[in-house]
């Protein structure tokens, strides 16, 4: 891992989050900002993800030019159709697609086991992902601030891994997926009340096109 790049990305994420906290930005806007930072952090801050993208790109080929936007437009629409009324927020950020999965539908408090009623939703996510194979996935776990920092870091990593494992069990190639846990470091709402903490307990999945 390139720690200099990781430190820079974390600093940028703190800047974005401070801006969100001090503005009237909607959850969608906050999600888009966070997705962009996390995409930069994982995509550029770690060598492992680059290797994974190159490996998968060698298998399925890359997109180029105007085909990129059209490919992601079609995929975005299918996510919106499949995930309507599911509780997952679909946020477009340039050519990337962010799926924001709040804690009230994914995990119980303090747990890393996927809630039983969320399996069918993840089945729909896997269905679309498997149809659009010229993408890679970045799964990032987050927590609220209840408990020790170290415990929350581990929990966020476990939650990201749980989502990855379920997707790969449903046909998503393991080479397409990387995971990361951010602990409690990137809240999108206040941790001073139950509603805010629920929003902060989340997993974000960013779908990134393979480009030449």
Automatic annotation (TrEMBL):
The keyword Membrane applies. InterPro entries: Bact_OuterMem_StrucFunc, Gly-zipper_YMGG, OMP_bac, OmpA-like, OmpA-like_sf. Residues 94-211 form the OmpA-like domain. GO terms for cellular component: cell outer membrane. It comes from Paraglaciecola hydrolytica. This is OmpA-like domain-containing protein. It is found in: Cell outer membrane. The keyword Membrane applies. Transmembrane segments: none annotated.
